[in-house]
Amino acid sequence: MSPKSANVVVIGGGVLGTSAAFHLAEAGQDDVLLIDRGPIASATTPQAAGQTGYLNVDRFARKFGMYCIEFFENFEQRTGHAIDFRQCGSLRVALTEPFQADLEARHKAAQQLGHAVEFLSRSQAQELVPTFDPPEDCRILLIPRDGYVEPKSVAVAFAAAAKDRGVAIETRVEATGLQINGGCVTGVATRQGTIQARSVVLAAGAWTRQFGQRIGLNLRTVPVRHQAFVTGPLAGVLPRQPIVRITEPQIYVRQEAAGLLVGGYGYRPLSFDMDEFDATFEIRSLAADPVYYQQLHAAATTFFPSLGDAVVIQERRGLPTISPDGRLIISEPGGLRGLVVLSACGVGGIDRSPGAGRLAAEIVSGGQPWIDPAVLSADRFGDQYATDGSLRARCEEIYAHHYHEVY
């Protein structure tokens, strides 16, 4: 039976919610309770590719990314729990001049940080990734600190570390709403009863917008389907080869076991209203878009010819949340105290989870945030995208140009 009260309740046991719980405990918050309607990391989190990528031209994103990559590099030291983090590096590939200029800007940013990144020739890239067939006139930037992690392991480790520090975790507890009194959140309604709380962190993934609507909040975040596939073993795939990200077709390819994991953006983007699903819906039962997979497979095979004969052994699809500018939403909504919204992972929840959890915990604790919270404010859109139609169209557009404008 879940507790009747807590100092802070975190709704959601995915990678963002578990990171928030850990960082709350680290910040000295006591009597923290995390609840989820299913097991830990049972929704979109395990469907992710788990890739990390910290090197951004945007100074805000770079500062945020630096905290995250340093956290992953020292995860066991920070939390007491190991994760499967493979710092294999990444190749960023640009085919045309506008995006080649972006690589130059990233290279300059790395130099300012004192980080060793370098442009590679076509043959050098193929030595690192033998199955990769880059065009002759492309530009390729090697970023050694990038990597990937088994996604579920991150949420599980955050949850275990939070529990070590006194956080209570209750699974199979479904939150159904929030209690409000005098402009303050005072509790969380669940199917087992009400949990009184001084603060609530709402990290409900694809269902975050629906929670807001129930209390009159128009949160600008919607879930958009993202899909990827994994092949069986392929000749030439190396155990620690770098991730390959190709900007123009918006695809990423990395090693998975002895095969390849392939994902991409801009292929038939589709957002969802979670109220259209029944109460028993689970992310793992999300219907596939076969045309998306066909288009993604065709685009990737141009650069990885061995995919043409590869056997697909797994399909992944989830519902990451997107905002109208592609940034996270981490803040108290205006006019409502005690609620911190933690959403809009932007198909990068694993990568961004350390920084997201830290900022959410700092807002709850009332301390000085390590970054300007206004950048990620839930209220930053003003009256824009106030209707579901305009919001969903904009977020689908952001997803469709993920590598071009955001990442």
Report on this model:
- The chain is an alpha+beta fold and 407 residues long.
- It has 2 domains: 5-48 and 152-223 and 323-406, FAD/NAD(P)-binding domain (3-Layer(bba) Sandwich), CATH 3.50.50; 84-148 and 227-317, D-Amino Acid Oxidase, subunit A, domain 2 (D-Amino Acid Oxidase, Chain A, domain 2, 2-Layer Sandwich).
- The protein is 30% helix and 25% strand.
- It has 11 helices and 21 strands.
- Strands 1, 2, 9, 10, 11, 12, 20 and 21 form an 8-stranded mixed beta sheet that branches.
- A hairpin with a 2-residue loop joins strand 11 (184-190) and strand 12 (193-202).
- Helix 1 runs parallel beside helix 6 (151-164), helix 1 (15-26) runs parallel beside helix 9 (349-365) and helix 2 (59-73) packs across helix 9.
- The longest helix has 17 residues, at 97-113.
Mean pLDDT score: 94
What is the CATH superfamily classification of the largest domain?
FAD/NAD(P)-binding domain
**Sheet of most strands:** 8 strands, mixed
Query: Shape from CA axes?
Result: globular
Strand content of the residues, in percent? 15-25%
Poorly predicted sequence stretches spanning 5 or more consecutive residues: none
> How many helical stretches?
11
Q: How far is the N terminus from the C terminus?
A: 43 Å
Sheet/helix structural class: alpha+beta
Task: Write down the CATH class of the largest domain.
Answer: Alpha Beta
Q: Which second-level CATH architecture of the largest domain applies?
A: 3-Layer(bba) Sandwich
Tell me the number of structural domains.
2
CATH topology of the largest domain: FAD/NAD(P)-binding domain
Strands, total number: 21
